[in-house]
Amino acid sequence: EYGLEKPQGYSVSFHYNPHVEYHHFGSSHPMKPWRLTLTKELVLAYGLEYTMDLYEPRPASFEELAVFHDREYLSFLSKVTPQNAKPDDPCYLAFGFGGESNDCPVFDGLWNYVSLYSGASLNAASNLLNKQSDIAINWSGGLHHAKKNVASGFCYVNDIVLAIQALLTQNQRVLYIDIDVHHGDGVEAAFASTDRVFTLSYHKFGIDRHGYPFFPGTGNINEMGPTDPANRGKGHSLNIPIDDGIDDDQYKWLFKTVTNAVIEKYNPTAIVLQSGADSLGGDRLGRFNLNIKAHGFCIEMVKSYGRPLLLIGGGGYTPRNVARTWCHETAVCVGAELHDVLPAHIPYIQAFQGEENGGGILYPDLHNTKRHDNLNSGEKLHKLVQEALENLRYLEG
Ligand code: V1P
Ligand code: CA
Ligand code: ZN
């Protein structure tokens, strides 16, 4: 349907340091690194480790993180602990810590955590650069909100920016695609002034009935990067704002139409795909109604272009479904089909069993598990696609 440039036999690598699992943001915080344990267990239970090259990357160094981040910020990150943190310190607030929501808490092992997920993204990028892999996967990364000197939305270090910077050493044009339910604002901002990175984010956008914008509040259709014609980055961002309750067919059509147009126009030599699983139905923070296979369709479609692909995680706040999705998408990369009934010998099998946990199968119906009414009419989506394609005209001149 979308012209396979490479029929089969992709070399896939899986970059994962299990030490990330042992970090905790706090019991009431929605970000649960434990979802990565569940993901790994599903991947192993289906035997997918025999179909890929496995790497256990070392943590990234201070110097590696300083390629993007400010040194003062990194130095703070590397030293702060729950014991020595001073929440009234102006530094603390300026760097994005604390505040009312406490999205970015200081927890034990914070520096170790950020170095581990960033090290995995850098290791995955270098595998693409050496041509050791066609597709490199890091489910522990994808922390798209972090800025060069500010933590934001559960993200402290922007592993995506670091990986793209590495890819730019040998690629003229890198395409960044983000299917997390939140706007990929940190990646967009980092590359705002260059035409060598195009950022494309699909996300929920809008204001709720209490007047609060959906986090982070940016990413409307008219936000296309810098407006100054002298800025090389002009027109090199595309944002697709979506309303609550979008369903499988609508999302697949939207993603296919817009992504195909961007790939054809921009002609990237490498692609980075952030596959945040909070766009699934039933996510604790998300608002969409996607099933696992519709989410995975996006990976399948991007893979079919046969360009070097870095596949990374992101959000995802209903851990059992995050694990199901990322296991399915790992299988999509290696070209395997998985049995719907989960293998019996999975550690933590209880997390997937029982009516409320998806009945012991890989592909439970997630549509409307949290009952978000679909506010996306066909008419609105057609208008959105039309505007998105119009925005792409800026790429030509
Ligand atoms: O909405 C906010 C705050 C309110 N302030 C004005 C900003 N924060 C969100 C952050 C969501 C981050 C998503 C990260 C990612 O894109 C990438 C990993 O998925 C937020 C929400 C929410 N429902 O949007 N924070 C929390 N919930 C939260 C809840 C409990 C404890 C700590 C944070
Ligand atoms: Ca997104
Ligand atoms: Zn998210």
Explain this structure to me?
The chain has 397 residues and is an alpha/beta fold. It has eleven helices and eight strands. The protein has helices spanning 34-45, 62-65, 71-79, 90-94, 110-129, 159-167, 185-190, 248-266, 292-303, 319-334, 378-391, and strands spanning 12-15, 53-55, 135-138, 174-178, 197-204, 237-242, 270-274, 309-312. The chain has an eight-stranded parallel sheet, sandwiched between helices. Bound molecules: ligand V1P, calcium ion and zinc ion (ZN). Zinc ion (ZN) binds at residues 180-182, 276, 278, 314-315. Calcium ion binds at residues 178-180, 182-184, 201-203.
What is the CATH domain class? Alpha Beta
Number of domains: 1
Which ligands appear in the coordinates?
A: ligand V1P, calcium ion, zinc ion
State the helicity in percent bands.
25-40%
CATH architecture: 3-Layer(aba) Sandwich
Low-pLDDT windows of residues: 1-7
Name the structural class: alpha/beta
Largest sheet: 8 strands, parallel
CATH superfamily: Histone deacetylase domain
- How many H/I helices? 11
Q: Label the overall shape.
A: globular
Please give the alpha-carbon distance between the first and last residues.
Answer: 30 Å
